[in-house]
Each structure stands twice: as C-alpha cells, then as structure tokens.
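Letters spell out the chain; the tokens describe the backbone. To illustrate:

===
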Amino acid sequence: MSYRRDVNGEIVAEEKDEVPATKEEGEKRWRKQIELRFLRGDDVDFDYSVVDEADHYDGPEEARDMEEQWFEEEEESFTREGSGSSLKGETGIQDF
C-alpha cells in the first residue's frame, strides 16, 4: 500500500487506481503537481515578487487593456449616416 498527503497535509492511503502504473506516468503526475503548486503560488523556493513587480511581463496585458479602453471610448458611427443615399445591392443576408 502507498500513501500520499491530502490538501491539509495529512497522510492518507492511496486507492489502487491512484498509484501510477509506470515510472513515466509517476513522473508525469509529479510534474503536473509541481506545476499546479507553482501556479497557485505555493512554491516556497520561488520569489514571486520578482515576477509580480517586473513591468516587462505586463506588456501583453497592458496593450490589451489600452485597446479595450480605446474601443470603449470610441463613439459609434455609421458610414452612410446622414448622407441621404440608400443602400443598394447586397443586403448582407445569406440565403441558401
């Protein structure tokens, strides 16, 4: 029988289907757990403040925020508004 720690850190027995069948599967599961721990911010060996305070990592988000703000501030306008002409030709509706 093998054991593992639950979310509270207590040692509990593993079910048979929770035990990896191969070394490769065990490594894959271990890597996934390490990745999840890092993403949750629970990795005690990593200084998250270095990344959190680095402005060069905020580039894509900042650019997207500026673009969203531009679209929100833009006033709606139509190209034929007030021109007195009516649209002719295709309606833009697909008929099958």
Notes: The two ends are 64 Å apart (CA to CA). Strands lie at 3-5, 11-13.
